[in-house]
C-alpha cells in the first residue's frame, strides 16, 4: 500500500476534501501569479521583437500524425522576415525516449523537405538544449500534454512567444484537458477553431483567457491551396468503379477509453474484413487512431501478435489497405467515411461526403461537448451492422445523401473562417500584426 492509500484509509472524508480544496487553492494562486508575471513579460518580448529584422520560429513536434502546421510553415518560410525550423523531440515513456517514434517523425519531415533540426545528439548520446541551439523567438507546440522531457515543455520557453494550435477539433466532453492545463494559460497565443471553442476556453477564466484567438483549424488548409495536387493513394481501381470507404475506428475501446468509450472496433473488426473479402466492388482503407494499436497490445484478448497480424492483413487484401499517416489525399479520393472517432466527425465535413458514426451505445452523444453534439446533426448514425449495410448501399452507392445540403451549410456557417482567409493565413497575419 502506498502513502496516498494509507492517508485515504485513516483520514476522515471531510478532512480529505478540505485538503484537496486547500491544494487546489494553492495551485490556482501560484498559477495566477505566474500568468500575471508571464503576460507582462510577453508584452516586453513583443516590443523587443518588433525591432528585429528576422525572427526565429521553431515548431516542436513529437508525432508526425499531429502535424497541422503545413500551410503555416510554408507561409512563414516564404517570408524573409522569418527563419523557420521543425524540431523533432522525443516521446518519453517511463523516463526513456521512444526511438521508433522519434525516427519515424524525423523521417517524415526529412522526406517532405522541411528544415529539420534534431534534438538528439547522436555523437554525444544526449538530448540537446534546443533553446540554445536554435535561439527561437517564437515557439509553436504541437501537443499540450507532458509527453516529453521537461526541457522541451512550455515552462522552459516562458521567455519566448509560445503558440499552439489544437492537433484536432475539440469535440469531446472533457474540455478541461484542452483549455485548463497550465500549458494553455502560459501560452502567448492559443489559436482555436471556432467561436464555440473560444467560449470553452474562456469558461475557465484564468486571466480572462486574453491569449485566445479564433483562427480556424489549419490542419486541412492544404486542400484550399491553389497549388494543391492530391495524389490518389488508393489501390488501383479495376475498369469498373469501386466504392472507396474509409473505416476510422477510435482508440477508446471499452475499459481503455478514459471515460469516453466511443470505439466500436470490437463490434466491427471482423465485419469489415468479411465485407471486402466478399465484395470486390468495394475498397476499404483501415484508418485507425494512432493510439488504437497500443491499446490492443495491452488488451488480454489481443496482444501484440494478434494486433500486428490484423493490421498487416489489411495490406494483404487486394481491395483493402492500412493507412496510418497523412490523410488529406486519402479523404479527397474517398466516397464516404464510417467511424466512431472524435475530430474526424468535423474534419471529413471539408470533403463534401457522407459520414456514418457507428454508435457503441445509446449514451455516446453525451460524451461529446455541445459543439460535438451539434455536429452529430449532420452525421448518419448506425446502431448495428444492418444500419451500416443500408448506409453503404443507399446513401453511398445509390447517392441518396439527404444530409448533404445541411452538412455543407454547417461547414460554411460554423466551421470555416468568416473572413475569406484560411486558418493558416489568419495565424500568419496575426503574427505580422503583432510583430512586424
How would you characterize this protein structure?
The chain is an alpha/beta fold and 436 residues long. It folds into two domains: 29-216 and 419-435, 3-Layer(aba) Sandwich (Rossmann fold); 243-415, Rossmann fold. The protein has helices at 3-10, 13-49, 70-77, 99-111, 130-134, 176-179, 182-186, 195-202, 265-277, 292-298, 303-316, 328-332, 344-347, 370-375, 385-397, 404-415, 423-435; strands at residues 55-61, 82-88, 92-93, 96-97, 116-118, 120-121, 126-127, 138-141, 161-164, 189-192, 212-214, 243-248, 282-286, 320-322, 336-339, 355-358, 380-382. It has a seven-stranded parallel β-sheet with strand order 5-2-1-8-9-10-11, sandwiched between helices. Strand 6 (120-121) and strand 7 (126-127) form a beta hairpin. Helix 3 (70-77) packs across helix 17 (423-435). The termini are far apart.
Draw up the topology in text.
Layout: H1 3-10, H2 13-49, E1 55-61, H3 70-77, E2 82-88, E3 92-93, E4 96-97, H4 99-111, E5 116-118, E6 120-121, E7 126-127, H5 130-134, E8 138-141, E9 161-164, H6 176-179, H7 182-186, E10 189-192, H8 195-202, E11 212-214, E12 243-248, H9 265-277, E13 282-286, H10 292-298, H11 303-316, E14 320-322, H12 328-332, E15 336-339, H13 344-347, E16 355-358, H14 370-375, E17 380-382, H15 385-397, H16 404-415, H17 423-435
Helix pairs in contact: 3-17, 10-11
Amino acid at each position: 500500500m502506498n502513502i496516498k492509500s494509507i492517508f485515504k484509509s485513516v483520514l476522515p472524508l471531510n478532512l480529505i476534501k478540505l485538503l484537496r480544496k486547500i491544494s487546489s487553492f494553492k495551485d490556482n494562486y501560484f498559477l495566477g501569479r505566474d500568468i500575471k508575471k508571464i503576460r507582462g513579460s510577453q508584452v516586453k518580448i513583443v516590443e523587443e521583437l518588433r525591432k528585429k529584422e528576422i525572427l526565429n520560429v521553431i515548431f516542436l513536434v513529437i508525432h508526425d500524425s499531429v502535424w497541422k502546421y503545413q500551410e503555416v510553415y510554408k507561409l512563414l518560410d516564404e517570408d524573409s522576415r522569418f527563419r523557420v525550423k521543425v524540431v523533432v523531440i522525443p516521446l518519453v515513456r517511463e523516463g526513456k525516449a521512444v526511438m521508433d517514434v522519434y525516427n519515424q517523425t524525423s523521417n517524415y519531415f526529412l522526406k517532405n523537405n522541411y528544415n529539420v533540426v534534431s534534438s538528439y545528439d547522436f555523437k554525444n548520446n544526449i538530448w540537446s538544449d534546443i533553446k540554445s541551439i536554435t535561439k527561437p523567438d517564437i515557439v509553436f507546440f504541437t501537443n499540450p500534454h507532458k509527453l516529453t522531457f521537461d526541457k522541451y515543455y512550455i515552462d522552459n520557453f516562458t521567455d519566448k512567444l509560445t503558440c499552439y494550435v489544437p492537433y484536432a477539433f475539440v469535440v469531446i466532453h472533457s474540455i478541461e484537458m484542452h483549455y485548463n492545463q497550465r500549458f494553455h494559460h502560459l501560452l502567448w497565443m492559443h489559436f482555436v477553431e471556432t467561436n464555440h471553442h473560444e467560449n470553452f476556453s474562456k469558461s475557465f477564466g484564468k486571466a480572462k483567457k486574453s491569449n485566445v484567438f479564433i483562427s480556424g483549424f489549419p490542419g486541412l488548409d492544404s486542400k484550399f491551396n491553389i497549388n494543391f495536387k492530391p495524389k490518389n493513394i488508393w489501390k488501383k481501381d479495376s475498369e469498373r468503379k469501386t466504392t472507396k470507404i474509409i473505416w476510422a475506428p477510435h482508440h477508446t475501446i471499452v475499459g481503455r477509453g478514459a471515460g469516453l468509450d466511443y470505439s466500436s472496433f470490437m463490434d466491427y473488426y471482423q465485419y469489415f474484413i468479411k465485407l471486402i473479402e466478399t465484395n470486390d466492388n468495394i475498397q476499404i482503407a483501415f484508418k485507425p487512431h494512432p493510439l488504437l494499436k497500443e491499446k490492443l497490445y495491452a488488451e488480454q484478448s489481443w496482444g501484440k501478435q494478434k494486433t500486428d497480424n490484423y493490421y498487416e492483413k489489411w495490406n494483404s487484401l487486394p481491395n483493402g489497405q492500412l493507412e496510418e499517416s497523412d490523410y488529406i489525399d486519402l479523404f479527397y479520393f474517398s466516397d464516404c467515411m464510417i467511424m466512431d472517432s472524435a475530430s474526424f466527425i468535423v474534419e471529413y465535413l471539408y470533403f463534401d461526403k457522407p459520414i456514418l458514426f457507428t454508435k457503441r451505445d445509446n449514451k455516446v452523444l453525451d460524451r461529446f461537448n455541445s459543439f460535438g453534439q451539434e455536429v452529430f446533426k449532420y452525421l448518419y448514425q448506425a446502431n448495428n451492422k444492418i444500419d451500416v449495410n443500408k448506409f453503404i448501399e443507399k446513401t453511398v452507392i445509390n447517392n441518396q445523401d439527404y444530409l448533404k445540403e445541411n452538412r455543407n451549410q454547417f461547414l460554411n456557417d460554423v466551421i470555416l473562417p468568416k473572413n475569406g482567409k484560411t486558418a493558416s493565413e489568419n495565424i500568419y497575419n496575426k503574427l505580422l500584426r503583432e510583430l512586424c
